[in-house]
Structure prediction request, 332 residues.
Amino acid sequence: MNVLKNLLWAVLGLLVVGGGFVLAARNGYLTPDEATLRSRYGLPNSRFADIEGQTIHYVDEGRGPAIVLVHGSYGSLRMWDSWAKELTGRYRVLRFDRPPMGLSSPQPGGGKDFVADEMRVIDELTRRLGIERFILVGTSSAGTPVAAYAVEHPERLVGLVLSNVAIGAVKPERKALPPALRFSLAIDPWLGGWHMSMRWREVLKMNFHDVTKVTPAMVREWTDLNNRAQRLPRPNYVPSGAMFARTATDLPRIAVPTLLLWSANDHEFPVDTVARRALEVLGTSDKHLEIIARCGHMLPLECGDEGVRVARASFDRWTTTNTVPSPMPAPQ
Prediction:
């Protein structure tokens, strides 16, 4: 009898603790506040711009021909730390958090088209900072707005880098996900947009070739910054793999010099079925494909040093053969 009574008390205790955890998660109590996140994940040169009521976190550093770096889904401008370190001795490097990721915020009205919204951020931010022509780099899901920008504004680009990007609609297979990630997705409706660190650890490991490079600090950063979005207004569009379909029609229309920078071990967009097809359909005659060995889908994060060394050869060639204004970053 005592055993049964103790068991009932234990079950009751678990229900109370579990219920408290769910309530805390759903109400945002488990995510650091905005001031803490800015202090924890801002950089010494972090700045914030207001673009039509939208807060954009960016870093603008270095001097020389300008390069704009656009990160992938669920990441932040910190994905480009190794690139910025390598390039700022000769180039002016601008990177920003794609809203609502990192420390940026979405449009007040929620936006209706993520491609148009992000093209607007690229265009407005560069013009506001006095950058007339630049090299544009996009990785993963950023490939869609970046390729679209190259089609719509070729006069502003010196060159283009597309790294591990989709070239058509994507259909994720949930059954192919790791068990821990499937469990995280299954309990999502209970937590109101908050996600455990386990989810982000599995996302990172799934997209790295060398999983030993996934550090606790990296997992904490991705957990904090992605849970921040729980407090923000939701977009008016529903994110889906169909959002990348535009790239297939944009690639043949690209006329600027283009480097396809790919990871040899990208399981999402493999070299043989995606990268080589992208090279084939690219409209520009100045195009080539470079492959980084022993690297997964998140190239800037896992293989940043190797990737930027390869990309820099193209940057140096493009800026040597083109006249590129090189204004200093505007005083802040």
Q: What stands out?
A: Residues 43 and 59 are 8 Å apart (CA to CA). Residues 2-26 form the longest helix (25 residues).
